[in-house]
Structures are given as structure tokens and as C-alpha cells.
Design a protein that fits this description.
single chain; 274 residues; two-stranded antiparallel sheet; 12 helices
């Protein structure tokens, strides 16, 4: 049998070239465009609708920053993630948690959350790994950070997943936590009214920021200007983050490891300003 020529093989490969005309191509393109538009629209509803329904949860003395209406979704998510991360690392026990993480490979959810926020604020790789570790151990705040991270990147399906996880974790925390402290009072769903909007992303973000702000000392200087959450880390802390040793992971790439130096620098930066 005579071997088939390359031209013959290529001709057979084009057997379907006349099966689809320009109208089919245009219809497929329109369908894809509609699916993309629908995804963006659902995400816009997920992020923004509750903002018009849920009353502000921040204390009266908490800093409030109005966002221009023209701010894009991913930019708003980036701003919220920096604010949330800054409040997390300004916790009075943050340095202690970093020291625990440096001492033992058995990390607590709070330690992993604080470490991830430090990495994010210093623009260092590895924040996603530690946020996922913390969320997997039950931290609703870590799940919210992942939601905002994916929104910032435009990864809407992943963002929706972590918004759902954050709602489930916060609901679980509400069921298991004491009912007589400030955190429980802020997180407790209303007995009536807009219960459906209680676990939307924006309402959870507002509540979490209010809770974190209630436990932050106004005199700390973990960032250059504690009143502004978008300011960079203080210099000694930023340098300590960049010095961290790393390990390689097949799935997550380069993962920084906490150090006692980082804990010390965080404690120094969190000391009351003179």
C-alpha cells in the first residue's frame, strides 16, 4: 500500500472546514460574550447589592474612607484587602502568633492568618498558601481575604467559592462562640429584618473590620501611618519579611517561613509611639 502523502493527510484533516459558516462563528462568539457578561453581572450583585442594605458596622471613631463610584471592582477589592490585612497584623497578640509559627510547624489559624497578611502587605509570595491554611482550619477572616484576593485578580468563580466558605465559617463561629462578648454581639444575625443580606461579602467585611478595629490600639505604628490602611509597612518590618527563608512546594511554589526575627520586628513596630 502506497503511503499517503502529506497533502492527502492535510486534506482529510480539513474535513469539517465547511461544516461551520460565518453565522455559526458569530453565534458562538455572541454566546461566549453573554456568558462573560452574566458572570460579571452576578459578581457585581454579589459584591455591591448588600452595600445599599446593610448599615455601617464600624464604630464612630473608626476611620471611614468614601470610595468614588467609578472605582473598579478589582481596585475596591485591593483596597479592602489591604485595610483588612493591616487591621489583622495590628492585633496586640500578632507578634506572639508569629513566634509560635516560627517555633512549631503546627500552626494555629490565627498565626497563619497574621503571617499571610504580613506577606501580602510586603508584596511577598506565599500569602495565598497561608490564607488557605488558615481558612481550612476554620478562619472566616482568612476566607474573606481569599475572596478579596480573587476579586482583585478578576477570578470571579474562585471569589464566589470563598465568599460562600466565609459565610459558612462565620455561621459556624456564631454557633460555637460565647454570646456575651463584643465579637458575638457584632456577628450575631438580627432576629428579624434583612437576615438574607447578613452573610453577603460586603456585610461580612464591614463586620470583620469593626471587630478587628475594636481590638486595635490607636497608638500602634505597624504601618508608617496607622490611620491609613493603604500605607506601607514600617521599614524594619518590611525588611524582615523580605529576609524570610523559603521552601518549595509542588502545588504552591515558593512558600516563606516565619522567623523569630520577624516576630521581634513586629513587636517593635507595634510598640506605642513616643
Amino acid at each position: 500500500m502506497t503511503p499517503r502523502s502529506l497533502d492527502e493527510l492535510l486534506a482529510d484533516a480539513e474535513i469539517l472546514q465547511h461544516e461551520y459558516d460565518d453565522e455559526d462563528t458569530a453565534a458562538s462568539r455572541l454566546r461566549i460574550e453573554r456568558e462573560i457578561a452574566d458572570t460579571w453581572w452576578r459578581s457585581a450583585l454579589l459584591l455591591e447589592s448588600s452595600a445599599q442594605q446593610v448599615k455601617p458596622w464600624l464604630p464612630e471613631d473608626a476611620p471611614r474612607h468614601r470610595t468614588p463610584l467609578c472605582t473598579a471592582q478589582h481596585e475596591q477589592a485591593a483596597q479592602d484587602l489591604r485595610k483588612l490585612s493591616t487591621l489583622v497584623i495590628r492585633d496586640s497578640r500578632a507578634a506572639h502568633h508569629i513566634a509560635l509559627l516560627a517555633q512549631s510547624c503546627r500552626a494555629e489559624p490565627a498565626s497563619a492568618l497574621i503571617f499571610a497578611c504580613l506577606l501580602h502587605l510586603a508584596d511577598r509570595e506565599g500569602a495565598q498558601f497561608w490564607w488557605q491554611f488558615s481558612a481550612g482550619a476554620g478562619s472566616a477572616t482568612a476566607a474573606l481575604c481569599l475572596y478579596l484576593m480573587h476579586m482583585q485578580r478578576g477570578e470571579l468563580r474562585d471569589a464566589e467559592h470563598w465568599a460562600h466558605e466565609a459565610a459558612c465559617l462565620e455561621h459556624l463561629e456564631n454557633q460555637t462562640s460565647p454570646h456575651d462578648d463584643l465579637v458575638s454581639l457584632l456577628r450575631r444575625p438580627p432576629s428579624q429584618g434583612h437576615r438574607g443580606s447578613w452573610y453577603t461579602p460586603q456585610s461580612m467585611i464591614n463586620r470583620t473590620m469593626a471587630i478587628l478595629h475594636s481590638g486595635v490600639a490607636a497608638s500602634t505604628r505597624v504601618v508608617d501611618n496607622p490611620a491609613l490602611a493603604d500605607q506601607p509597612l514600617c521599614q524594619s518590618l518590611a525588611v524582615a519579611v523580605q529576609r524570610l527563608e523559603t521552601k518549595s512546594d509542588a502545588d504552591y511554589g515558593t512558600i516563606p517561613k516565619a522567623s523569630f526575627e520577624l516576630a521581634a520586628r513586629l513587636e517593635d513596630c507595634a510598640a506605642p509611639s513616643p
